[in-house]
Amino acid sequence: MNSEMSPLDKKINEHFGGLVVRKDLVKAVKGNAIVPSYVLEYLLGQYCATSDEDSIQTGIETVKEILAKHYVNRSEAGLVRSQIREKKLRKIIDRISVELNDKEDVYQATFANLGINKVAVPASTVKKHQKLLVGGVWCIADIEYQHDEDEKTVPWILESLKPIQLSSFDFDGYLASRKQFTTEEWIDTLIQSIGFNPDSFGKRSKLLQLVRLIPFCERNYNLIELGPKGTGKSHVYSEFSPHGMLISGGEVTVPKLFVNNATGSLGLVGYWDCVAFDEFAGKAKRVDKALVDIMKNYMANKTFSRGIETLGAEASMAFVGNTQHTVAHMLRHSDLFDELPTKYHDSAFLDRIHFFIPGWEVDIIRGDMFTSDFGFVVDYLAEILKQQRSFDYSHLYATKLQLSEQISTRDRDAINKTFSGLIKIIFPNQDATNEELEELLVFAIEGRKRVKDQLMRIDQTYADVRFAYTNPQGEEVVVQTLEENQYPAIYYKSGESDSEPAEPSTPAQLAEPVKKAEASGPEEGHVTVKENQRGIEFDTLFGAYVAGATKIVLTDPYIRIFHQARNLMEFIETVARVKPDDERVEIELITSEEEFSSEKQLEFFEKIQKSCLPIGILFSWTFESTIHARHIVTDTGWKILLDRGLDVFQKYDANDSFAISNRLQKHRSCKAFEVTYLRQ
């Protein structure tokens, strides 16, 4: 086994050998082949499902050779057809769709890239793989060419067809292997399986990524995600699973989505586990009102009509789109659904949404966010999720936690479906602790509350709902969305435009200490900041408390690597802004020595010391090996307790000088942390 592998990678390979792949290999083999990740990982899983580096490199070359020889690139379709005719090639990889020719009573296949159609397909093949009839499926196919004098005879003969997906699946083995992982390890394994580096995400951000998977494991689940461009909203639905279909929001009709009354053929919802609508936002988009009405009924009742007949289906729906404005702007002038086409900006339609992913919390994808570690072959994970679609785990919290009686049946159903989906993904053995159950329930409540709060802006007839639950201690806990917490002055308004300036993005928990500090000087208090909250600055947290000090002692054992040293420098910048030019301030750092690169750590400190000297700040440091506490003490009598030290920000692109999060702290996402201010 490769000695460079992380402990988690070793564990993944030990318990899921043959079902995992190193995620960076997809890019290594893809080249210019326009195929989904699950197709590539299917091939990689056949040849690279190992931890041995030599075997991996051999497998990569084999997969590259297979793609080069058998994948049909549209630009080379003519050459491939010629090779098949000359008996030089018969096995190809292509997206194949099938239609029934009712005039001749035969099924006929169309090969998307090869550019041929009307290829006869046995009815038994279509019966076995019905998704061929709707949207098409990536397959490995054996095809021959036999010319006939009869012009009506198609020369192409399909000998065999194999959809690219797993042939077998051991769910009990999966459950047994899951027990070998801690909750944190398992979540990180899932994040790596999606293709991301878990170190780039906090716990809340990881859950937001995992919510995107719920439509694949929960029947008739309706999800929406709106946010800035480039956050990977549609990636899961286009690349992740052979059981999902991604379509453009403006390119779907009633017959395509539900049923063709003329032919009686079912649409997408009859064959796919998840139907996702890409580019769903856009006010100017033309939308068929009849489609919206049928979608409303389907999303609420899981049924749709074909003439006088009522049909049911289990497909979940996901809607993803881009927003043009900031959260504060939307809350000030309209609502968080503002970007949707008018016919979808309808309270009856939106009330069917079970969870609203706040896409503005998801970072724009950067190169360092992708993983080069191991994760499940995505097709295996897709089968895991599909296997659980008939399960219902919404009852797991009922003996420990009780939802408020004010929460309506529709709201309750939405919360339960999200909770059940997260349990399936994270705790398939149903062995979550009470604390873990509560965390997922709160997360599910928040996602539905985000929908309901915006509905009350759109339609004034919706009554206010108290989204709360009773914990095991019998205490009622009220749940708030992060936007509600961050923008309290504009969150509860009707959404009507006015000329008042937007409130500053100071978190609600910080507002009172800040106002008091500005009015009459700093006072004792406590601040709690939630994960992914923005609007936090060292100037706001510490400025009033270090002003006037001539000696400041910062104790933080983790000022070792670059981003931690940068946080230290930004704290010193805060001191510099509140320090009179003619005064001198001593800043002493008490920290622990970096075990493996102490030279680099010393280099950081020496550069900071040299930089601060000309502005009257004397920086020094002391190494202590036994410290654990993190706090700031000033000679003016303040002690500031820091549960995370200065390391309060999520990862951002510190190398991009033009990234606004690099320049301004308030535009960075935060980790969850607390600060306590004590007067000594």
From TrEMBL:
Residues 513-525 have a biased composition (Basic and acidic residues). Residues 494-525 are annotated as: Disordered. Residues 535-679 form the MITD1 C-terminal phospholipase D-like domain. Signal peptide: none annotated. Residues 14-145 form the BREX system Lon protease-like BrxL N-terminal domain. This is Uncharacterized protein. It comes from Roseimaritima ulvae.
